[in-house]
Amino acid sequence: MNTVLWVVLPYICLTSFVVGHFWRYRYDKFGWTTRSSQIYENRLLAWAGPLFHFGILGVLVGHALGLLVPESWTSAAGISEDAYHAVSVSGGTLAGLMTVTGLVLLVYRRRMTPSIFRATTVMDKAMYLLLGAVVAVGTYNTLVINLLGAGHDYRADVAVWFRSIFVFQPDAALMAGAPIAFQLHALLALGLFALWPFTRLVHVFSAPVGYLVRPYIVYRSRDPLGAARAPRRGWERVGS
Ligand code: HEM
Fold first, then answer.
1. What is the average per-residue pLDDT within 29-36?
2. Which atom of ligand 1 is nearest to the CA of 89?
3. Which of 118, 94, 119, 98 is nearest to 34 (CA)?
4. Structural domain containing residue 21
5. What stretches of 64-80 show up as alpha helix (H) in DSSP?
6. How far is ligand 1, taken at its centre, from the CA of residue 59, in Å?
7. What's the pLDDT score for residue 206?
């Protein structure tokens, strides 16, 4: 059973993640979108969108540090376990709460705005359910177990298991001994990875990063020949 959960399942889900993205790009290039609903409602979105997205970016950075950086590296750099715990639990709590609040507002907005609710697909609902569950259990782990409770050193089991998957030396025993809430969080996350390519979450890989530096107004010079030139067929390249 442990081999199925912590070896077979991770590889199935990660294969679905990788192959699914290629498949989606190949067969549904024009459906590769956030399916933005900004046009229907902007007041709540203006708060909920940034709250969720900045929160989840913080969560991502936290996961990269917590799961990918071995404990031996931070202690070799002179960072004590107490100092690591203090930084990770405070950063994790802030990022987790921002993500949960943003997500609750996004789902509330989607349910309460009739035009957005009508545009919500079955796949959207499945995705929100799974994403909500992953985020809720993750935040429970940080808040209830690591901030308020006795704490669990996930860098000694969950993180080592996570890395073992990517070096093709999966170690199921590490996860088998982890607390149930950490196991559940990882299983839900694997489910989310499997579903990811078939949902609007594909937009993560085409985030409009250029928006951060684009000019507000684009000036273009006039065509020097103006109306004197006969129009050409099809698209014309926009010059300067
Ligand atoms: C297999 C993949 C994953 C593993 C092994 C994992 C592991 C963990 C661990 C160990 C914690 C507790 C951190 C702490 O207490 O400081 C955590 C927290 C959390 N996780 Fe994950 N996670 C995974 C994927 C995800 C994904 C895909 C999401 C969301 C899309 C997510 C969202 C969260 C959130 C919101 C928290 C609480 C805030 C935080 O500590 O950053 N996790 N996760």
1. 86
2. 16
3. 119
4. 2-227
5. 71-76
6. 7
7. 84
Task: Output the CA 139–ligand 1 centroid distance in Å.
Answer: 7
Distances (CA, A) of 118 to 37, 40, 59, 80: 11, 11, 31, 52
State pLDDT tens for residues 165-179.
999 999 999 999 999
Yes or no: say if 100 and 136 are a contact pair by the CB < 8 Å rule: yes
Looking at the domain assignment, is residue 240 inside a domain?
no
Q: Residue 234: inside a domain, yes or no?
A: no
pLDDT of residue 57: 96
Q: What is the mean pLDDT of the chain?
A: 91
Mean pLDDT of 106-119: 95
CATH at 185:
1.20.950.20
Give how many domains the chain has, as a whole number. Answer: 1
| Smallest CA separation from ligand 1 atom 33, residue | 138
Q: What is the pLDDT of residue 224?
A: 67
Give the residues surrounding ligand 1 with Cβ less than 6 Å away: 59, 62-63, 66-67, 88-89, 92, 95-96, 99, 131, 134-135, 138-139, 141-142, 146, 154, 158, 162, 182, 185-186, 189-190, 192
- Whether 104 is in a domain gets the answer yes
Distance of alpha carbon 96 from the chain centroid? 12
In a domain, 222, yes or no: yes
Instruction: Determine the average pLDDT of the residues in 45-53.
Output: 95
